[in-house]
Specification:
With 73 residues, the chain is of the alpha+beta class. Helix content is 37%, strand content 40%. The protein has a 3-stranded antiparallel β-sheet, covered by helices on one side. β1 and β2 form a beta hairpin. The protein is elongated, with a radius of gyration of 13 Å.
Length: 73
C-alpha cells in the first residue's frame, strides 16, 4: 500500500526544512521505521547542503511536524 509522509525539521542555528514523499510499504511496516528513514533523508539533505556532520544534526534536530497517511483518499 502507498503512503504519503510529510516531515518538517528545525535545526537550531541552521534552519528549517520540510520533506515529503510517497512510499510503498509492505504490510507490517511500523510508523517508527518510516519516521526514522524520513528523518535520516531530511538530515542528510541538511548535512550535504551545509557540509555538516549528520550525526551532530540528529542530536540537534527538532521535529516540527510529522504526518503519515494512506496515499489514496
Amino acid at each position: 500500500m502507498k503512503y504519503h509522509y510529510v516531515l518538517t525539521l528545525q535545526i537550531p542555528a541552521i534552519g528549517i526544512a520540510t520533506r515529503n514523499d510517497v512510499v510503498d510499504l509492505p504490510p507490517g511496516t511500523s510508523r517508527q521505521a518510516v519516521f526514522l528513514r524520513a528523518r535520516e533523508i531530511a538530515i542528510n539533505g541538511f548535512a550535504e547542503a551545509g557540509e555538516l556532520d549528520p550525526m551532530d544534526l540528529v542530536n540537534r534536530a527538532v521535529v516540527v511536524f510529522w504526518s503519515l497517511e494512506a496515499e489514496e483518499l
